[in-house]
Amino acid sequence: MTFSPDLVSSPEEHDCDEVFPLVFASSSPGDEHQIRAWVADQKPELNRLLARHGAILFRNFGLENDNDFDKFIKAFGFPNFTYAESLSNAVRQNRTERVFTANEAPSEVSIFLHHEMAQTPVFPSKLFFYCEHAALEGGQTPLCRSDALLKVIEKNQPKFLSKCENLGVRYSNTMPSKNDSESGQGRSWKSTLSVETATQAETKLHALGYSWQWCAGDRLRVTTSVMPAVRTLSDGRRVFFNQLIAAFKGWKTEEGGPNKAITFGDGSVIDDGDMSQVAESAEALTFDMRWETGDAVLVDNFLVMHGRRPFRGTRRVLASLVGNEERKSSGVSNAN
Ligand SMILES: [Fe+2]
């Protein structure tokens, strides 16, 4: 039987001027060789479509487990971005060298919209997700186009946007001494920084340009250097590429409200009202990706934010990250 997935339109209505996400659906599952051949043949077009639209869903391709997903990813030939090397704050477990659990946070926890690792100096260019087991209820992956969001902010909150552009932002978070899988931000400082000792941690933070403070209970509070909050893609589109929404809504600190997690680059306060309005604008633009078991999605991390809705039942979504070797050609530059 031949394997020739069709490009079909999005399964739901949405509020974006591009089709989003694009969907390739197969009438029958393919085997390993058919899928590899199809990806190899379609790769230039898939890259073009991804850069334009931001997300592509692959449905009914016959991906039955983590190994099938791994082979599917390998067929694209993208450079791997390992979780071990990353400064991600989420607790995850590797399944294969390049495939890991998306986030181990409890089912009632919302993972708010974010660009993967945009709060760190190193972030992936793309992400693959794979649904090994769809939740009984909920568990969608919200996807939001950051170019569309930027246009809305520019229209409704021009002063806030120009402060973001001119001042940049800083992120602060406190890392526990041991992995805490009950939190979406529970990765220990040893694991996050890939170190064994406090001295090694400080050496690494210094090299990254972070400031830090040791807290009770062997916890480590860090603040990044100034990071851009708006970036420009190689085709000229501007994107609200940062971690502000997730940090504002999700990073609870013991010291108080979420504003402790984010400031403008000069240390001045980011207004809660402004951030609430940004989060509402993003929500209005968000498409909820409803998973079917076996689905795979490829997301352009420069263009699209993602998150996770709370869920009931068992939900196993796996992820894999693509490295940044293509960054120059795929094109993100600092707008500042
Ligand atoms: Fe993420």
Q: Can you describe what's shown?
A:
With 336 residues, the protein is an alpha+beta fold. It has 2 domains: 184 residues, Clavaminate synthase-like (Double-stranded beta-helix); 136 residues, Clavaminate synthase-like (Double-stranded beta-helix, 4-Layer Sandwich). The chain is 29% helix and 25% strand. It has 9 helices and 20 strands. The protein has a 7-stranded mixed beta sheet, covered by helices on one side. The protein has a 4-stranded antiparallel beta sheet with strand order 5-17-8-15. Helix 1 packs across helix 2, helix 3 crosses helix 4 and helix 3 packs across helix 8. The C terminus is likely disordered. The site of fe (ii) ion (FE2) has 3 residues, from loops.
The figure for the number of domains is: 2
Bound molecules: fe (ii) ion
Beta-strand percentage range: 15-25%
Contiguous runs where pLDDT drops below 50 for at least 5 residues: 326-336
**How would you describe the shape?**
globular
The CATH architecture of the largest domain comes to 4-Layer Sandwich
Number of strands: 20
Q: Look at the structure and name the CATH superfamily of the largest domain.
A: Clavaminate synthase-like
Ends apart, CA distance between termini: 53 Å
CATH topology of the largest domain: Double-stranded beta-helix
